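hey all, quick one before standup. I had two proteins in the batch that finished overnight and I want to keep them in one place so we stop losing track of which output belongs to which input. First protein below, input sequence then structure tokens straight from the run.
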Amino acid sequence: MRNRWLAVVLAVASLAFFGYWSVFFAAWAGFTVAPPGWGRAIESIPGLLASVICGLIAIAAFRWILRWPVRSWWLLLAAPWPMWQFFAAAFA
């Protein structure tokens, strides 16, 4: 029982850590000197890719630590915020 609680705490900690960085990179990608439009959206791609990668790590690590199947539709949750930021920059 004690190991299960430790696994849950570690899983939540990894989810919080990588989830924070996922949101940080997505928000950071919006700060650029390029004028609004496709130029800004294209410039923000590296930060948005970092956001997606951190989101994938957060969800995959959480599921792996708890010994749940890593491949699942939950991994799709890493994409909406970076996609929103990309289209917000492109159509601003």
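OK second protein, same deal, sequence then tokens:
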Amino acid sequence: MGFLVQLAASETGVIIVATDLLLPTVALLYGGLMSILAAIDTYEWIKRRREAKAKAREEMAIAKSREEGREQGREEIVALLKEHDIELPPEVLRRLNGDAE
């Protein structure tokens, strides 16, 4: 610190002391800003990932609901056919059960 005081006493020393104090301050501010921006970027990445997972879960639930609806519809058709003693050919039954292409 004594060296900085001696430099500040001369004319050119003021510029040197100011530069010596300014550079570390700028480096700290830059590092702090980069840390803040990295934290914001990480937060946004986590948020996008959570939204993508929620969307995938929702799509899976919709697909499961549709499949359950189809299965229930098939069961109702089969029950109605049995009620009226109607027999379908094996190919039609396979299609009804979803085994056909």
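Flagging for whoever picks this up: The chain has a mean pLDDT of 85. The chain is about 85% helix and 0% strand.
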